[in-house]
Write a structure and sequence with these properties.
globular, Porin, 1 helix, 206 residues
């Protein structure tokens, strides 16, 4: 993940609006389903990586699972409207007794196009994503986030209504506040996670 910090103005609290935005996503899905011509569509995509580093007698291991799950309806001619759940879970063993954990997750409104010739592109706007580092009393939570996820994939049919293939996912999430224990504070400058990774994805129609 890439973390950058620059000066910027104050923005409104996304955590205060995330519940409302998620409700709007559900309402959009419900209303779209009434006019959908090609049924329900889902797009699970995942990537698992393992990294091991040794420096003399010191060694570390990091396991990371990245998961996207989109659910929506085909409004017309491959145009999709729906919602996506985005998450990154990483666990690093930096010694025999010390483990560091990072969890990033968010829900957002997804829209995109399933082209007839085997490719697709989607954009998702995340509402109130959070990043959690560590556990217990020392846990740090970065919140009031906002973000965007762009997915571009190529599909190959493997059966009735099921396609699989590679998907390239770019994501960028920015956070406004942090909380350690019971102490919350506004972040100074820009705190963000930006990633670009290939996923294994499926596109399924019901």
């Amino acid at each position: 993940m890439v973390q950058s910090r620059t000066s910027r103005g104050t923005r409104w609290s996304w955590s205060q609006t995330s519940i409302t935005c998620c409700a709007l996503v559900c309402a959009a899905l419900a209303s779209s389903a009434a006019v959908a011509k090609s049924g329900i569509f889902c797009n699970p995509a995942l990537l698992y990586t393992e990294e091991q580093i040794r420096r003399g007698n010191a060694k570390s291991k990091t396991d990371t699972l990245r998961l996207n799950f989109g659910l929506g309806v085909d409004i017309d001619s491959g145009f999709i409207l729906g919602a996506k759940y985005y998450s990154v879970t990483a666990s690093s063993d930096i010694s025999d007794s010390d483990t560091e954990k990072v969890d990033v997750s968010g829900l957002g409104l997804m829209t995109g196009w399933m082209a007839p010739k085997n490719w697709s592109i989607f954009a998702t706007w995340l509402f109130g994503p959070e990043r959690t580092e560590g556990s217990g009393s020392g846990k740090t939570v970065y919140s009031d986030g906002r973000g965007i996820v762009i997915d571009a994939g190529w599909r190959s049919s493997v059966g009735s209504g099921v396609e699989v293939g590679p998907q390239l996912t770019w994501s960028s999430i920015t956070y406004e506040k942090s909380k350690v224990g019971s102490t919350s504070s506004s972040l100074s400058g820009t705190w963000s996670d930006t990633e670009l990774y290939p996923y294994l994805a499926a596109w399924i129609r019901f």
